[in-house]
UniProtKB/TrEMBL annotation, chain A:
GO terms for molecular function: guanyl-nucleotide exchange factor activity; translation initiation factor activity. Component of the translation initiation factor 2B (eIF2B) complex which is a heterodecamer of two sets of five different subunits: alpha, beta, gamma, delta and epsilon. Subunits alpha, beta and delta comprise a regulatory subcomplex and subunits epsilon and gamma comprise a catalytic subcomplex. Within the complex, the hexameric regulatory complex resides at the center, with the two heterodimeric catalytic subcomplexes bound on opposite sides. It is found in: Cytoplasm, Cytosol. GO terms for cellular component: cytosol; eukaryotic translation initiation factor 2B complex. This is Translation initiation factor eIF2B subunit beta. It comes from the Eukaryota. Keywords: Cytoplasm, Initiation factor, Protein biosynthesis. Residues 147-162 have a biased composition (Low complexity). It comes from Chrysochromulina tobinii.
TrEMBL record, chain B:
It comes from Chrysochromulina tobinii. Its main location: cytoplasm. It is found in: Cytoplasm, Cytosol. Gene3D superfamilies: Translation initiation factor eif-2b, domain 2, Translation initiation factor eIF-2B, N-terminal domain. Component of the translation initiation factor 2B (eIF2B) complex which is a heterodecamer of two sets of five different subunits: alpha, beta, gamma, delta and epsilon. Subunits alpha, beta and delta comprise a regulatory subcomplex and subunits epsilon and gamma comprise a catalytic subcomplex. Within the complex, the hexameric regulatory complex resides at the center, with the two heterodimeric catalytic subcomplexes bound on opposite sides. Belongs to the eIF-2B alpha/beta/delta subunits family. Keywords: Cytoplasm, Initiation factor, Protein biosynthesis. Coiled coil: none annotated. Transmembrane segments: none annotated. The keyword Cell wall biogenesis/degradation does not apply. This is Translation initiation factor eIF2B subunit alpha. PANTHER family: TRANSLATION INITIATION FACTOR EIF-2B SUBUNIT ALPHA. InterPro entries: eIF2B_alpha/beta/delta (IPR051501), elF-2B_alpha_N (IPR042528), IF-2B-related (IPR000649), IF_2B-like_C (IPR042529), NagB/RpiA_transferase-like (IPR037171).
Length: 418, 312
């Protein structure tokens, strides 16, 4: 007989998977993703990198494996720190020209991405750094890196911010007749560029620290008085967004409890403590309440190149219920979650969490499969609006943001040109 | 103006011979070569004159029966290039030389574009999946062959009457060892449940983000939409055209020269019967998920952006 366990107990467990690392390590299956499929690794893929970078990478990967680092913002920051260290100590790896630096960064990135393919922000940050390197090389280290500036500066007022920086790399119909851009990275000396590159990385770090604030600034444009907002899970960006809106507006929030992790319960508590009128419902009641909801606001683990979301499990169901009642789904995500890859295959970029919150080990049930996927893929047509720190954008225009922040040659980290 | 029409007819003749010479390159490359040829042969001595020559050659080309619909945007591309380089170039001859050089380069890269499209589109084919296609598109075949290098999947090809060029696709894929199933055009809905994705080529990609392609593409897109299967287009960016049709009636008139499939072996249709045989149809952008082009993987709205940038 199954024992009835009261759900309050699981609410305490929440996101803290620290103690369950053993089970998770074995269960987390990482389906290889197409765009970053790696060739068979040689004995030590990190061998070419400076020793202290090797050390830092192994430390980060170990932490991720043990799930001691869960917040994607922290992962992004850590990745940038490693990249900064790599640029600073690249001389130790005999990298004297830009091309060999790009190779080194790609190598380090490929290793980290292969180890943790579902941590999308690692790949994103590596690509951002590569774009900085390419940008600085093109400008000869004279001009400051623009894209990061604009994101930080434009913040709340978005539409204008995006237009100002028309640095669109990548091919265009207009430039079909232009001579192919022959920027030979291997001829560019790294010495003079190191400073500007590190400065560029620092700017991205600065951007990371203001992401939530910039997104929250836009809250009052999207949440109106007396509206009913539905959310689930506990995304720090969404939490900040709702709290910011509550400073000026009176509205109701309905939170789905988000079984089996119960993050929604924590969210409900946090919102209620901030003085927001909060209702907690079971996940099964989402459809029932949707008719009186004005807006669904969710966070995302990653925003894919087609505008689709990789978000907490249950998001797809939520979005479909919203579509049934023609309720707009708004996703809040920082630009660092923008991933220049397309989701392919049913379970890429996903992973399985511990079955513990669903079925306790000591309940002794034998022969039952208890998969507990962490994420859902929400197709772009179900998402009405994406709010990033550079402003709101429609999912079909994600490609513009991608062109602004990434270089097309960096999409595949395992591929090294020239 | 007899002199004008002579130059224009020369461009048209050049197009026809280029197309016959190198059928693998396709109509876009032939049109670019013909435009380049018209610059070479022109006696224009001013930038205005050169632009005029290009526009006239373009008009002559677009009056041809099987000319690509993107001629106008290709012309605009050249004219734009002239006005942009005019500021930097030393003299008129410099511009002319540069223009010819770049035109020849573009004709070459149009062919290379296919391998680029194949590379970026191939990951969208799932291992073990089934891809539905119709007609014959060099881009689609290149993409499927590229995907076949790394995974096993099968292809269903609709015959695509009236020309029936689905047979060409099927043959080329089968020769390369890709499992191919042929179905009649009317069986598209029947096989749709089995499919993972639908992939078509395009005769032209329009400003709306929709496409003009072989008749049957529209209905295939509608069926794919009904079954919630992704519908993708593979096309070179030289096929982007500044047209904005609102319905099927807004397409440039074009009827296949072939005999109507329904009357093959039955003689011509009797007098009160009208036999229509449209050779292409327009698929609106809301049915198109993504376009694989040499400019990257684009959403339909990205296509509009590119064309607006070119013409504004």
């Amino acid at each position: 007989m199954r024992k009835q366990t009261i759900s309050k107990k699981t609410s305490g467990v929440g996101c803290e998977y620290v103690g369950q690392s053993g089970t998770l390590g074995r269960l987390a299956h990482c389906t290889p993703i197409v765009a970053t499929a790696m060739p068979a690794p040689s004995s030590n893929p990190l061998a070419d990198l400076p020793p202290n970078v090797q050390q830092e990478i192994s430390k980060l990967l170990a932490k991720l494996r043990r799930r001691q680092l869960l917040n994607s913002l922290d992962v992004a920051r850590k990745t940038l720190e490693i990249m900064r260290l790599l640029v600073a100590t690249s001389a130790a790896a005999q990298a004297t020209d830009v091309n060999s630096l790009i190779k080194l960064i790609k190598r380090a990135g490929a290793v980290m991405v292969t180890a943790q393919p579902h941590e999308l922000v690692i790949g994103n940050m590596v690509r951002r750094v590569l774009a900085i390197v390419r940008d600085e090389t093109r400008d000869g280290g004279n001009k400051p890196f623009k894209a990061g500036d604009a994101a930080a500066a434009s913040g709340g007022d978005a539409a204008s911010g995006g237009e100002q920086t028309v640095h669109v790399a990548g091919p265009s119909l207009m430039s079909l007749l232009d001579a192919p851009e022959a920027l030979d990275y291997s001829r560019q000396s790294l010495k003079a560029l190191k400073g500007p590159i590190i400065e560029g990385i620092a700017e991205v770090m600065e951007e990371l620290s203001t992401v939530s604030a910039h997104i929250a600034e836009q809250a009052i444009q999207h949440i109106h008085a007396n509206e009913v907002v539905l959310t689930h899970g506990r995304d720090p960006t969404v939490e900040a967004f709702l709290k910011a809106a509550a400073k000026k507006r009176n509205f109701d929030v309905i939170v789905a409890e988000t079984a089996p992790g119960g993050e929604g319960q924590q969210m409900a508590v946090a919102l209620a403590e901030a003085g927001i009128s909060t209702t907690l419902i079971a996940d099964a009641a989402v459809f029932a309440v949707m008719a009186r909801v004005n807006k669904v606001i969710v966070g995302a683990h990653g925003v894919m190149a087609n505008g689709g979301l990789i978000a907490a499990a249950g998001s797809h169901l939520l979005a479909l219920a919203a579509q049934h009642f023609s309720v707009p789904v708004v996703a809040c995500a920082g630009l660092y979650k923008l991933t220049p890859l397309f989701p392919s295959g049913p379970d890429s970029f996903n992973m399985l969490l511990s079955p513990q919150p669903m079925l306790r080990y000591d309940e002794g049930l034998q022969g039952v499969h208890v998969p507990n996927p962490a994420f859902d893929y929400v197709p772009p047509e179900l998402v009405a609006l994406l709010i990033t720190n550079s402003g709101p954008s429609h999912t079909s225009y994600i490609y513009r943001l991608l062109a602004e922040y990434y270089h097309p040659e960096d999409q595949d980290l395992s591929e090294v040109h020239g | 103006m007899p002199a004008v029409s002579k130059a224009a007819s020369k461009a048209a003749a050049a197009y026809t011979s280029f197309l016959a010479e190198d059928p693998v390159a396709g109509p876009s490359a032939a049109a670019i070569k013909a435009l380049t040829e018209s610059i070479k042969g022109s006696s224009a001595t001013t930038i205005m004159g050169l632009s005029e020559v290009l526009r006239e050659a373009g008009a002559a080309l677009s009056s041809l029966r099987d000319a690509p619909m993107s001629i106008a945007s290709l012309c605009e591309l050249f004219v734009r290039f002239i006005t942009r380089t005019a500021l930097e170039a030393r003299d008129f001859d410099d511009i002319r030389r540069l223009l010819i050089e770049r035109g020849e380069m573009l004709a070459r890269t149009t062919i290379e574009a296919r391998s680029k499209i194949a590379k970026i589109g191939a990951p969208f084919v799932d291992a073990g999946g089934v891809v539905l296609t119709l007609g014959y598109s060099r881009c689609v075949v290149a993409l499927l062959l590229a995907a076949a290098k790394t995974k096993h999947f099968s292809v269903i090809v609709a015959e695509s009457h009236p020309q029936g060029d689905g047979h060409t696709t099927a043959q080329q894929l089968a020769q390369a060892g890709v499992p191919v199933t042929m179905v009649e055009d009317a069986a598209v809905a029947y096989v749709m449940t089995r499919c993972q994705m639908v992939l078509c080529g395009a005769e032209a990609v329009l400003e709306s983000g929709g496409v003009i392609n072989k008749t049957g593409t529209y209905q295939m897109a509608i069926v794919a939409h009904a079954f919630k299967k992704p519908f993708y287009i593979a096309s070179e960016s030289t096929k982007f055209a500044r047209l904005f049709p609102l319905s099927q009636n807004d397409l440039p008139e074009h009827e296949s020269a072939r005999e109507h499939a329904a009357f093959v072996g039955r003689g011509p249709p009797p007098p009160p019967l009208i036999a229509e045989k449209p050779s292409r149809d327009y698929t609106p952008p809301n049915y198109v998920q993504l376009l694989f082009t040499d400019l990257g993987v684009l959403t339909p709205s990205a296509v509009s952006d590119e064309l607006i940038k070119l013409f504004d």
